[in-house]
Amino acid sequence: MKNEVREHRRTRELSQADLAAELGVSRQTIIAIENGRYSPSLPLAFRIAQFFDVPVEKMFDPSEEET
Amino acid sequence: MNNVTHPRLIAPLSTFAVGSAAAIAVRIGYTWSAALAVEVFVVALAIGYYTLAGTKSDVGAIYGQRKDERQRHVVLRASRFAMIVMFATAYAIFLFMIASKKTYWQEDVFFSVGGVSYFLGLLIYGSHDEDANGTQRGIMTSEPVDDDETTRVIPPM
């Protein structure tokens, strides 16, 4: 699933490890989400959206599958 | 598992406990030297698990009992892969058993226990036939559910 996690993370000048620590997941999971290789669960998707203060439907776009 | 003070120790200590039991069995059935060899192997394996559990990889997180939701998916997929390989191997042995007119009761047990536990797992973890309100209708029910009928809200008079 395409998402804007990387863009928002860079805007906040956070490393993947920083974001992973904030969200309580591994750095590999952040990498997988940013690259569209893993679609997070609803609770994690909401945590990400809330962390960046962005609506979840803006953060994640289910209509666009990243290849 | 989250309440354990040192979750990194779970895999190595479990390995040590199970392996030591195997070493005791080897001592009872065979010799001290064979049992000692098994115990040395078990200790080396436990140290390996402890080292692995400290790494920052997915494998390290899984063995270190700190896996997140994606890593739980990895565990499920790995378990599924292992089950397929196990059953393929058992089935190959089963075919060999028939072709060579030999009987290995262990394979019969493996197949039986594996098949039954898989079916039990489906019953335990799978959702069964339910109506729109979530009420169980029984495993074998084949009558169609009228969702409109069960979800219709009658407005108060």
How many DSSP helices of chain A?
5
Q: What global shape of chain B is seen?
A: flat
What percentage of the residues of chain A does DSSP assign to strands (E)?
Answer: 5-15%
Q: Number of helix segments of chain B?
A: 6
Mean pLDDT of chain B: 85
Strand order, sheet with most strands of chain A: 1-2
Counted beta strands of chain A? 2
Task: Quickly give the structural class of chain B.
Answer: mainly alpha
Written as H for each helix and E for each strand, in order along the chain, the element string of chain B is HHHHHH
Largest sheet of chain A: 2 strands, antiparallel
Percent helix of chain B, as a range, is 55-70%
Q: Helicity range of the residues of chain A?
A: 55-70%
Shape estimate of chain A: globular
Question: Could you tell me the strand content of chain B as a percent range?
Answer: under 5%
Indicate the radius of gyration of chain A in whole angstroms. 11 Å
Oligomeric state, counting identical vs distinct chains: heterodimer
Q: Identify the biggest protein-protein contact and residues per side.
A: A-B, 11 and 10 residues
